[in-house]
Amino acid sequence: MDARYLILFIAFTLLSVGSNSQSTLLEQVSTQSNDRLQEVYLYLRLANEAKSVDAEQALSYTRQALQLANIISSLEARAEANELMGELYQMMNNFQPSINYFLISGKLYESLGKKENLAGVYSKLGMLYINNNYNLESAQYYFQKLLDLGIELNNQKIIAEAYNQIGGIFFRQESYDEANHYNREALKLWEQARDNEGISTALNNIGEIYHMKGSYNTALDYFNQSLSISEHIGNKDLIAANYKNIGLVKSHFGEIDEAFEYFDLSLKLYKETNNIENQVSIMLTIGDQYFTINEYKKAYQEYIQVYRIATKSNHWKHIADAAFGLSRTADEMRNYKLSLQYFQIYAAYNDSIVLRQKMDRITELQSRFREDLQEKELLLAKKELALSENQNKLNTLKLNLLILSLFFILIISFLILNRYRSKARKERLIREKDTQLHTAQRELMEIDIQAKDNDLINFALHLVQKNEMLQHLQKELKKLPCNSDEETIQRISELNAAIKHNLSLKEDYEEFKHKLDDSYNDFFIRLRTRFPNLTRNEERLCAFLRLNLSSKEIAAINNTSVKAAEMSRYRLRKKIGLEFNDLLPEYLQNI
Question: Each residue of 123-152: pLDDT tens digit?
């Protein structure tokens, strides 16, 4: 048996213990292994079954599927493999590769004319930008493309999905009237399509809008309508979301016991569906509720459970969230040493998440580059060996032909001509190798540029997060009573001094400007050539926007208000003569 299919057989065996469907896959491996396209889809099915258990293993299967799809030049298989790669990297919190794979998948679906699949990619890209602290402007761009595609296809469900997501963007921007409009449009379309899951989702979202506007009775009515439909269709995740939202409303009404009953029901359902992400979310919500009603010991117990679960699964984001909650709770319990300890854990994991994202991206690209280069070098070595063997044969023939004299002169001439052709092929292969090496060097330069951009973004976000947290801690320390013993007062004073020292933004800001000027020197030269009237601050603003930093982040870095950052951005658009419908960050990316 071929080693490749033996590996497939073992993989299916490990995944198929107690599973009839996976036993069927084993039969397919043995009967259809000669079909390379079928092999691609078997790898993809393996990856889909493994992704909820072992994302790394699923990634390995998908890579093999993508490699085979490239070999057999199947555009559709390549599109599906790239889309799954994007989903897996998103699950692993490695967002830049996820975006790249989704974009590749989208281009392939577009070339194939598979517009419904393209719509799915647009939806995933938009959600990725929303859920992982990317800018809402880019998310809205992809949801608008999703809406345009739905209108082109006259697909009510796609249009409804686009309206729902655009409403979500307005909700995050606290533009609740706009959010309400789009969610109600989505509700109408889902009602026309008799899509109960969509109807329940829209009702729940409208309820959240009224909840944020303080209309708690109206919000509760919508949550109950959504819950009734969710229970009818048996969607446990939607039911759990309804319970959580109803619990939050009950908490606002002061019905604390009922609120916690709903939170417990929500947690129970998420456990039944094995939705770890939402289990942690509801446990954090319960901890926050206990914190709000000054039940600090109970809040501490909830946060510590999350911390243990996250530590066991080594989920850095959950560890950071739990550590932050524990730090706040310990601070309220006046255990300042423990509070500082958990805050340090929070800060360390928060920094590590940013660093891991950058390093994973670099490692992934370097690994792929090395694998590709090794394959090309191996192919070239084989060709050179073949040429060398041919050369030896020619030499032997030449010796024999000299003995046979003039009778074989025609054969000798033919062999000499063949020799020159072989030499030309060898020189052509050498030139192709040089071209490949130049291409590889250029790709390395592009990786280096991307790494510098990621470094600047991570530095800026770290700068904003660090100072916001330190300012929060400083405010909380000032609230402490002054009638404590001398040792406690001395310790509080030392903590205040340490926080004040670390709040000095000038040195960090100067370092950030130095990094920005060094990394974007070529960009600034091109920018000055095109727009010589820009000031130095406007040039830096262009660089910030090119990095896709939001107005809030730019304001934090420049120590100004968000409104001032928005005005600077507006003035820059006017100064460079940008049309209303053109996106400023996208325009700067092309300079």
Answer: 999 988 887 655 688 888 999 999 999 999
Residue 218 to residue 240: CA distance in whole angstroms: 20
* pLDDT at residue number 382: 63
The pLDDT assigned to 482 comes to: 64
Nearest to 549 by CA among 579, 588, 503: 588
Question: Which whole-number Å values give the CA distances from 88 to 53, 299, 349, in the listed order?
Answer: 12, 33, 22
In the prediction, which pLDDT does 12 show?
Answer: 47
Cα–Cα dist 476/52, whole Å: 41
Cβ within 8 Å of residue 508, ≥6 positions away: 463
* CB distance 463 to 553 below 8 Å: no
**pLDDT score at 470:** 75
- 167/189 Cα distance (integer angstroms): 14
5's tokens: 């299919």
Calculate the CA dihedral of residues 88, 160, 579, 118 and round it to 10 degrees.
Answer: 40
Q: What is the pLDDT of residue 411?
A: 83
Instruction: Sketch out the chain's domains with CATH numbers.
Output: 510-591 (1.10.10)
Which stretches in the chain have pLDDT values below 50?
1-34, 357, 360-361, 363-365, 367-368, 371
The DSSP code for 479 is T
- Report how many helices (DSSP H) and strands (DSSP E) the chain contains, helices first: 26, 0
End-to-end CA distance of the chain: 55
- Taken in order 396, 398, 402, 408, the sign of the CA dihedral is positive
Planar angle of CA 80, 51, 54, nearest 5 degrees = 140
Quote the strand ranges of 418-561, DSSP E.
Answer: none
Distances (CA, A) of 586 to 486, 516, 545: 58, 19, 9
Q: Residue 296, SS3?
A: helix
pLDDT confidence of residue 377:
56
Q: Give tens-digit pLDDT for 332-377.
A: 999 989 999 999 998 888 776 656 545 544 543 454 455 455 556 5
Contact yes or no for 123/146 (Cβ under 8 A): yes
Q: What φ, ψ does residue 452 adopt, rounded to 5°?
A: -65, -40
114 SS3 class: coil
- How far is Cα 168 from Cα 166, in angstroms, rounded to an integer? 5
Asked if residues 214 and 184 have their Cβ atoms less than 8 Å apart, the reply is no
Contacts of 425 (CB under 8 A, 6+ apart): 387
Instruction: Specify the pLDDT at position 504.
Output: 54
